[in-house]
Design brief:
299 residues, mainly alpha, MetI-like fold, elongated
Length: 299
C-alpha cells in the first residue's frame, strides 16, 4: 500500500507545472506581439493593412466590417491598422527604455556594491530617493521637460526603472564579492575592472531578465498613461494610450465601443504576456521557488 503514491507522484511530475504552462502562454503572447510589430510594414505593403496615418478615404465611426475589421475612429482612422502599428510603437519605446535603465542601473549597482564606502552611501541615497517617487508621476514630469518622441518617451520611462536594477545588482554584488574566487582574483592582482567584468558580472545579473520583462510590462502601461494624457508620442504616431484618449468622446455620446475595446485589449494582452513570461523566468531562475511550486502541483 505504501508504494501506491509513487506512480502517482511520477505521473504528476511528468506533467508541466502551472508555472510552466503560464510561462508558455506568456511566451506565445509576447512572440505574437513581437511578430505583429515586425510584420506590420510588410502587411501594409501587400495591402492587408491601411496606412495608420491616413483617414480621409474612410467613413468616420464605421462599425467593424469586412472592410474595416475593427471599425474606424471619429476622424476615420482604421482601428485595426492603428492597433497593429501601436504594437510597433510600444515595443520601440519599451525596449529602448528598459535597455537604457539596464545600461545605467547594472554598472552603477556593481560599482557601488563592490567599492562600498562613501560612494555606496551616496548612490544608495540617490537611488532610494528615486525609488520612493511614483513611476507615473516621475515619467509625466520628465515628459513635460523633454517633450514628445520615441527617444524622449524612453528617457522619461527609464528613469523610474534604474533604481530597481541598481538595488538588485548592488545587493548581489555585496554578497558575491566575499566569495573565495573573488578573494583569489584580488590576491592574484586582478584589477577592479577585470573583477567586475570577468568574475562579478555573470554572477550578479541572474535576476536581470526577470526585471527586464516585468519592467517592460509596466512600461507599456506607463506609456499608455502618457499617451492618454497627451504626453507620449507625436499625435500622428499610432499609440494605444493616445487612441484611447481620442475614443472617449465617441464612447460616452454615441456608444462607439470598438475604438476603445481593441486598443485597450491589445495593451492588456501584451502586459499579461510579459508579466507571465517574467514570472515564469523567475521560477526558472529561482530553484527554491520552482521546487515549492512543483510540490504544490503534486499535492
Amino acid at each position: 500500500m505504501a508504494l501506491l503514491p509513487i506512480p502517482n507522484l511520477l505521473r504528476s511530475s511528468s506533467r508541466p507545472s502551472l508555472s510552466q504552462q503560464m510561462t508558455r502562454v506568456g511566451l506565445l503572447l509576447t512572440l505574437l506581439f513581437v511578430s505583429l510589430a515586425l510584420l506590420a510594414p510588410l502587411l501594409q505593403s501587400i495591402g492587408l493593412l491601411q496606412n495608420p496615418t491616413e483617414f480621409l478615404d474612410n467613413p468616420p465611426h464605421a462599425a467593424p466590417s469586412l472592410r474595416h475589421w475593427f471599425g474606424t475612429t471619429r476622424l476615420g482612422y482604421d482601428v485595426f491598422s492603428r492597433t497593429i502599428f501601436g504594437t510597433q510603437a510600444a515595443l520601440q519605446v519599451v525596449v529602448l527604455a528598459t535597455l537604457l535603465s539596464l545600461a545605467i542601473g547594472v554598472p552603477l549597482g556593481m560599482v557601488s556594491g563592490y567599492i562600498g564606502g562613501r560612494l555606496d552611501r551616496v548612490l544608495l541615497f540617490f537611488m532610494d530617493t528615486l525609488y520612493t517617487l511614483p513611476g507615473l508621476l516621475l515619467s509625466v514630469t520628465l515628459a513635460f521637460v523633454v517633450g514628445r518622441g520615441v527617444l524622449n518617451a524612453a528617457i522619461a520611462l527609464s528613469i523610474s526603472y534604474v533604481p530597481q536594477y541598481f538595488r538588485v545588482v548592488r545587493n548581489h554584488t555585496v554578497s558575491v564579492k566575499t566569495e573565495l574566487f573573488i578573494e583569489a582574483a584580488q590576491a592574484m592582482g586582478a584589477s577592479t575592472w577585470a573583477i567586475l567584468t570577468r568574475y562579478l558580472f555573470l554572477n550578479v545579473v541572474q535576476s536581470v531578465p526577470v526585471l527586464f520583462t516585468l519592467n517592460a510590462a509596466d512600461a507599456i502601461l506607463t506609456l499608455g498613461g502618457l499617451g492618454f494624457l497627451g504626453l507620449g508620442l507625436p499625435e500622428e504616431t499610432p499609440e494605444w494610450g493616445q487612441d484611447l484618449r481620442q475614443a472617449l468622446d465617441g464612447l460616452a455620446t454615441g456608444g462607439i465601443w470598438w475604438t476603445t475595446l481593441f486598443p485597450g485589449l491589445a495593451m492588456t494582452l501584451m502586459v499579461v504576456g510579459l508579466s507571465l513570461l517574467g514570472e515564469g523566468l523567475n521560477s526558472l531562475i529561482n530553484p527554491t521557488q520552482r521546487l515549492r511550486s512543483t510540490e504544490i502541483d503534486v499535492r
